[in-house]
Amino acid sequence: MRPNLSLAPRISLGLAAAVMVIAIALGGLLFSRHWHHSRLPQAAKPSELGDFEAVTAVQELAEPWSSKRFVFHKPETKEAIGAIVVRLPDSAPDQPASYWAFSLLPLFGHCQLEYITDLQKLSNDYKFEAKHPMVGDPCSHAVFDPLQMADMPGGAWARGAIVKGSAFRPPIGIEILLKSDQLVAAKME
Fold first, then answer.
1. N or C: less crowded end of the chain, CB within 10 Å?
2. What one-character-per-residue DSSP string does the chain give?
3. Topology classification of domain 53-188
4. pLDDT tens digit string along 45-58?
5. What are the C-alpha distances in Å from 160 to residues 7, 25, 47, 113, 137?
């Protein structure tokens, strides 16, 4: 036989259950974010490049739309951030502006962004017709165009304008520099 609880204890039990569910969900998100970071390949160690981390050799991104994943270590926190660099088309390989590097984790959210070169996948999974590779968020199904710039607060611009869906902003950019024949990650937005 179940005892009858008055209204106040039932509300207290309901609130306690809700707090427990929220705590479990947040713990799962934190575990998921840590697990994604631990699966990423390690970047080359800084050497004669000074404080910068080598991303890849220029010749590895010789073709337009070629890409390379890397790990960016935030200087202030040493946090490992999964990232990717893309060689943009119609650009000279000896110019930093020929490359777009960005964090694979959006500013808000837990889904890892994906660089999509398979245009059929864009059509099927994102319901977006494109003529060149794009970046997609598999959770929100937002699509970002590497060739378009977006206006940001304060008059700044960011590469990767949102062309489908909703997102807070384009992917978080990482500055790429050229040091002899190496692409190096300098800083994150």
1. N
2. -PPPPPHHHHHHHHHHHHHHHHHHHHHHHHHHHHHHHHTSPPPPPPSTTTTPEEEEEGGGG-STT-EEEEEEE-TTT--EEEEEEEEPSSS-TTSGGGEEEEESS-SS-SSPPEEE--HHHHHHHH----SS-EEE-TTT--EEEEEEEEE-GGG-EEEEEEEES--SSSPPEEEEEEETTEEEEEEE-
3. Rieske Iron-sulfur Protein (2.102.10)
4. 444 445 677 889 99
5. 53, 31, 31, 12, 12
Measuring CA to CA, which residue among 175, 183, 148, 170 is closest to residue 67?
Answer: 183
Task: Give the global pTM.
Answer: 0.71
Q: Model confidence over 120-148: pLDDT tens digits?
A: 999 999 999 999 999 999 999 999 999 99
**CA-wise closest residue to 113 among 104, 122, 121, 124:** 104
Alpha carbons 32 and 4: distance in angstroms, whole number: 40
Token output for 10: 């039932």
Distance in angstroms (rounded) separating the CA atoms of residues 168 and 174: 17
Which residue type occupies 37?
Answer: H
